[in-house]
Write a structure and sequence with these properties.
Length: 101
């Protein structure tokens, strides 16, 4: 057996898979789910979410990823998610400014 693979549920899966190696459609779906849920949780606040709420969004989306049988380590999704939070906040602020026009 290869050192970067393991058997899970009768399937050989790569344990060191990177977010960038997912299919474009999978990356877009995950990015969209994370962004929309984060912005929805922000509601009218223009600041980053409390860590407990932020992490709950991550785990909820990761559960959805597993249900779709997309194999990616949680750490990879987490790294991507945390790198995007500032852009989610900016995107929310722009939406709020458009509403206020």
């Amino acid at each position: 057996m290869m050192k970067n693979h393991t058997m899970r549920n009768g399937q050989l899966i790569q344990v060191n898979k990177k977010f960038s190696s997912l299919k474009q459609k999978q990356k877009e779906w995950i990015a969209s789910e994370l962004k929309e849920r984060y912005i929805q949780a922000m509601k009218d606040k223009n600041m980053k979410l409390h860590p407990k709420i932020r992490d709950q969004i991550l785990y909820d989306v990761y559960d959805m990823i597993e249900k779709k049988e997309i194999w990616i380590p949680l750490e990879e999704v987490e790294r991507y998610y945390y790198s995007k939070i500032s852009s989610f906040v900016r995107s929310h602020q722009k939406r709020q400014m458009k509403k206020g026009e």
